[in-house]
Every structure is written in structure tokens, then in C-alpha cells.
# Entry
Amino acid sequence: MTDLLVKLYDLPDHEELTTSLARQETIVRRAMASERKQVAVWVQQLFGDGWAAESQVSFARQPIACMVAVSGGRLVGFASYDSTCRNFFGPIGVDPNFRHRGIGQGLLLAALEAMAHAGYAYAIIGGAGPMAFFEKSVGAFPIPGSTPGIYQAAIKRV
# Structure
């Protein structure tokens, strides 16, 4: 899958999206250290071992490089960055029962904004799955020659 590039100095305003999520009683925030295990278990159950491992690495960063979406006190989404490689965004996932409500976009923008505040000018979305989502949400564009990218050397399951 192709890597995408995002200009962090040109992110869209997301005040309206944050307000919309708040009306849905959903907040997007940085995860807390005490939530590491709960987030990893949730990610593993919905998205598998690989993403769970990446989410755990994001908790080793300071500040924690994992954003969570919480609705009614329940975890409904996450987004990590600086886990597989520095300056890489991802993975990101939303509970299937909570999709198409703006939560993924809220997580994406919160994480990318945190990366911008950390001093990055650009972010790489590694092996982007739903490219249209990233292109529409933040103007991401393909990096020529980035397929298969860093994930080609991953250990295969037997």
C-alpha cells in the first residue's frame, strides 16, 4: 500500500467537527498512561495484534502519542503516531458501530495537530488503507515510489 504525505502547517480548522462530536457526547483527547492496557486490549480485539503492538509503542512516547475517542465513558476509537517510525501517523481505528460520525476525522486531526506542535512540518501516513479518507480530510497525497514501503520487511505469520 502507498504512503501518503500531509502538510501539517496547512491542516483544516476542526472547531466545527469538535463541536459536532461534543453534541454526540464524544470527546477526542490524548490517552492517559493508566489506559494503556485497556486501549491495547480493545485495539487487539477489533483490529489485531499488529495494531495493538503499535498502540502500545505510542504509550511509550512522552507525551503519549495516542489519541482516543470516548463516548459515554466507552472507548470508540484510537489513533497513534510515532510508533512504527518517527513522523509516521497510524494506525487509526474506530469501532464499526460508531463509524460515519466524524470520529475518525477528529482522531486524525487531533493526532496530526499534536505532531505539528511537536515540531514536524509534514507527516507520513504509512501504508494508507482508505486513501480517499485521508485525501479528503487533510489533503494527503501519495508519495511516489512508496509502495510497498517500510512494511514489506514485516515478519509473516506462519
Remarks:
- The radius of gyration is 15 Å.
- Strands lie at 4-7, 26-30, 66-71, 74-81, 88-94, 122-125, 141-142.
